[in-house]
Design a protein that fits this description.
The strands form 3 sheets. The chain has a 6-stranded mixed β-sheet with strand order 10-9-8-11-13-12, sandwiched between helices. Strands 3-2-1-4-5 form a 5-stranded antiparallel β-sheet, with no helix packed on it. Strands 6-7 form a two-stranded antiparallel sheet. The chain has helices at 13-22, 54-57, 124-137, 155-166, 183-189, 206-214, 264-270, 272-278, 295-302, 307-346; strands at 27-35, 38-43, 46-51, 68-73, 79-84, 90-94, 102-107, 111-117, 140-146, 171-174, 195-199, 239-242, 248-251. It is 34% helix and 22% strand. The radius of gyration is 23 Å and the shape is globular. It has 10 helices and 13 strands. The protein is α/β, with parallel strands linked by helices. It folds into 3 domains: 6-84, OB fold (Dihydrolipoamide Acetyltransferase, E2P) (Beta Barrel), CATH 2.40.50.140; 90-251, Rossmann fold, CATH 3.40.50.300; 271-346, Probable gtpase engc, domain 3 (Ribonucleotide Reductase Protein R1, domain 1, Orthogonal Bundle). Helix 3 packs across helix 7 (264-270) and helix 7 (264-270) packs across helix 8 (272-278).
């Protein structure tokens, strides 16, 4: 079936096959904005505002920006989301406002752009967390150093070295909206109707970068505080935007809390140097403390492994273990309540 409009949003033969396998009967479209149980959906028929049913809005498959879905019109004339198509990728963090809950940020993203302004201090621990989130999503992380025109001589090279130390092989783009540096590289990565999303702290220059890529002022921007280079959230929703060169970009509010969610494999990937050394330890259950024959401790003593990096790795391991225990306890409690209710109904 010809779907001329949504092809420009990334619809392809694989999505057409997914739709056929889903059994859905509604019209397919992509969610370009999600707000409080309602979503703006772009279809071949145009943009519509669709409601989520009450069950889906509280489920693990609550719609997020970037989702592909089918929509239907009920007998009362209300447009609703019938079904979400299976996601290829999903960017998830631990919900900072809930204990032991996940918070999807965006879906079906190909590239996660981790944005850092050169006018603020570089924090390796924050980048490591962003990298875990990005790799865990199934997308490819790319670091963008914004406000490059403000950099002092040699500062960019120093930053690239620091980034390579925590994310070997991760592509780094130097960008400046004043000189248009880096814009072509971003467009290159999104060629062919690919989707990117921007992650970074408030004031890092995400919305300014989006406006430069769009060629017009669509995202509101604010000045950062000179005292600490921090800013307020100017983007308050996650919007899917179509760039003039054909790529798609999801701008997101600034992120302060970067809680991890079910990310053991991604954690091992980001800290591959430590896990590789751990494989050489004499004992399989080595805690990398005072055990004899510990390759991680030997690496720290020789200077090959940064002890601060080991501390951050241990902290994230503990965070994931605590989360797993919390989720398991909640599931047991829910199962117990369900069994109790079934027992009462039998009486």
């Amino acid at each position: 079936m010809e779907r001329s409009a949504i092809v420009h949003l990334g619809w392809d033969a694989e999505w057409e096959a997914t739709l056929g396998e889903s059994g859905a009967t509604g019209e397919p479209g992509r969610l370009i904005r999600v707000e409080r149980g309602e979503s703006d959906v772009m279809t071949d028929s145009g943009e519509v505002r669709a409601q989520s049913d009450s069950l889906r809005s509280q489920s693990d498959l609550a719609p997020v920006t970037g989702d592909w879905a089918t929509i239907v019109i009920d007998e009362d004339g209300n447009t609703t989301i019938e079904q979400l198509l299976e996601r290829r990728t999903v960017l998830v963090r631990r919900d900072p406002g809930e204990r032991g809950e996940e918070q999807p940020l965006s879906a079906n993203v190909d590239v996660v752009f981790l944005v850092h302004g050169v006018d603020r201090p570089f924090r390796a621990g924050k980048l490591e967390r962003f990298l875990v989130l990005a790799w865990n999503s199934g997308a490819t992380p790319v670091v963008i150093l914004t406000k490059a025109d403000l950099a002092k001589p040699g500062e960019i090279d120093d930053l690239v070295g620091l980034i390579d130390a925590v994310g070997p092989g991760v592509e780094v783009i130097t960008a400046s909206v004043e000189t248009d540096e880096g814009l072509d590289e971003v467009n290159r990565l999104l060629a062919g109707h690919r989707t990117g999303t921007l992650l970074g702290e408030s004031g890092a220059g995400k919305s300014t970068l989006v406006n430069a890529l769009l060629g017009e002022e669509m995202q509101e921007t604010q000045e950062v505080r000179p005292s600490d280079a921090k800013g307020r959230h100017t983007t308050i929703t996650r919007d899917l935007l179509v760039l003039p060169d054909g790529g798609l970009l999801i701008d997101t509010p600034g992120i302060r809390a970067v809680g991890l969610w079910d990310a053991k494999d991604a954690l091992e990937r980001v800290f591959a140097d430590i896990t590789a050394a751990a494989d050489e330890c004499r004992f399989g259950d080595c805690a990398h403390g005072k055990e004899p024959g510990c390759a991680v401790v030997a690496g720290m003593e020789s200077g090959d492994i940064d002890p601060r990096r080991v501390d951050r790795y241990r902290a994230m391991q503990a965070e994931l273990a605590e989360l797993e225990a919390r989720v398991t306890a909640r599931e047991r409690s829910n199962n117990k309540r369900s069994n109790t209710k079934r027992g009462r109904r039998r009486r």
